[in-house]
Amino acid sequence: MKILGIIPARYESTRFPGKPLVDIAGKSMIQRVYDQACKAHLVSKIIVATDDERIFKHVESFGGVVMMTDKNHLNGTTRCNQVLDLISKSGEQFDVVINIQGDEPMINPQQIDKVAKLFNDEKTQISTLAKKITIAEDLCNDNIVKVVFDDNKSALYFSRQAIPYERNHKKDNWLDHNEYYKHVGIYGYRSNILDKIVALPQGKLEFAESLEQLRWLENGIRITIDITDFESIAIDTPDDLLKLTTKL
């Protein structure tokens, strides 16, 4: 099985323009993500997918593989699909694509391999990760996406709200009465499924929660979950860089 890892990297970001090029202890963020991704054992090739000449030249400068993509992509999923399409036309074929977040400079390579391993099951269409929530205030944070899944680790629903709702207990005590999981935003897709999901129209659930994975569930596509214990740090704003000071 050939697996392609793609790191989408836009220059324009509302909250943090140019963040792929920000310096973090002597290395750019995109180089740190790339270097970590290259440590994954199950990925055959890593490519940065960008829409900006500055990022393109920078990735080339540290020896990374990079591809220029459209500026008009709405999300990383469609950008990944364009890369897969361009590579396929050149004659190189991949069975699985893993969408690696370009704003997590300390991503654990084992997480990438966890996502990849789920495709050993031929029934896996899309794979992703979840981490158990241990802090009560995370349940109330709308920026932390929660996920519930069945006994076969198939996702049932994703939400910005805490799910399930513990109707017999105060919210401050929910963690004492149930297990809650947050979604870790890394995706693996079988190549034929990736091509299918980018053509799906937006559904009511996705529109309501602004979560594209709900479009896939609405259309009957199975999302397989594995559990990770690793706490990744996403850099969304300049202030988030402070979170890394004790980690590097």
Model description:
By secondary structure, this protein is α/β, with parallel strands linked by helices. The chain has a single domain (3-230), classed as Spore Coat Polysaccharide Biosynthesis Protein SpsA, Chain A, CATH 3.90.550.10. The protein has helices at 29-37, 53-61, 76-89, 109-117, 136-139, 191-197, 204-209, 213-218, and strands spanning 3-9, 23-24, 27-28, 45-50, 66-68, 96-99, 126-132, 146-149, 155-159, 181-190, 223-227.
Concise overview:
The chain has 248 residues and is an alpha/beta fold. The chain has helices at 29-37, 53-61, 76-89, 109-117, 136-139, 191-197, 204-209, 213-218, and strands spanning 3-9, 23-24, 27-28, 45-50, 66-68, 96-99, 126-132, 146-149, 155-159, 181-190, 223-227.
Task: Spell out the key features of this protein.
globular; Spore Coat Polysaccharide Biosynthesis Protein SpsA, Chain A; two-stranded antiparallel sheet; 248 residues; alpha/beta; 9-stranded mixed β-sheet; 8 helices; single chain; 26% helix
